[in-house]
Specification:
Layout lengths: L1 H5 L3 H60 L2 H4 L4 H26 L7 H6 L7 H14 L3 H18 L8 H37 L3
Helix pairs in contact: 2-4, 2-7, 2-8, 6-7, 7-8
Length: 208
């Protein structure tokens, strides 16, 4: 081999050297492209999760507001009926948006009865949430359970969309607030609201 190389012209030697140098470069390119493809796939799943969560988070906020407006003391305020009606319309619109996202992304994000049941989140199924909301709208009770189930849906999508695994610190903190802290906060807010209403009712019925 060494003897034969001696007989190569300068041009052929340079071509051979360039070919040898291209081998590690090619290997590096393969690893780089593979890494980029993985990153792109990861980002696509995250984007799908964010799109799905948008109406869910909106619903959680609206249901919490509806719970406050449904308190007996709030119902006696001027314009209470109009405010409740407006809130109910916004909630219906948010459920319609959730239905669209479910049709587009539900399967890919594991928002299916079997997947939810496996994680003990049966109440997070969108059709079940809508039925639960209609009971809440009729009876002006049950907000706490509905908020809890919305929180379960947020957690389900956060896990299946890799949002809880975001490697970027800034966006991880933001998604952690949405996926973990927000459902807990809304549930606690609803529970505190119920406790306050119970105290008000007791105080109003106390003859002293």
């Amino acid at each position: 081999m060494a003897t034969s190389i001696k007989h190569f012209t300068v041009g052929r030697r340079l071509l051979l050297l360039a070919s040898l140098l291209l081998i590690p470069v090619g290997v590096m390119l393969v690893f780089i492209v593979s890494g980029l493809e993985g990153y792109i796939a990861f980002a696509r799943v995250e984007h799908a999760g964010l799109a799905y969560l948008r109406p869910v988070v909106q619903l959680a906020g609206l249901v919490a507001r509806h719970r406050q407006e449904s308190r007996p003391s709030a119902r006696r305020e001027a314009g209470a009926a109009e405010r409740l009606q407006a809130l109910q319309g916004q909630i219906e619109d948010a459920f319609a948006a959730l239905d669209r996202q479910q049709a587009l992304l539900g399967v890919s994000l594991s928002v299916e009865p079997e997947s939810l049941r496996a994680r003990h989140r049966d109440g997070a199924w969108p059709a079940t949430l809508r039925a639960e909301w209609r009971d809440v709208a009729r009876n002006a009770t049950g907000h706490t359970a509905l908020l809890e189930h919305l929180g379960e849906l947020i957690a389900q999508v956060g896990e299946s969309s890799n949002l809880i695994l975001d490697p970027d610190l800034d966006s991880y903190v933001l998604t952690d607030v949405v996926v973990t802290a927000l459902p807990q906060f809304l549930q606690r807010l609803a529970t505190v609201g119920e406790a306050l209403e119970a105290v008000r009712s007791t105080a109003a019925s106390d003859p002293a």
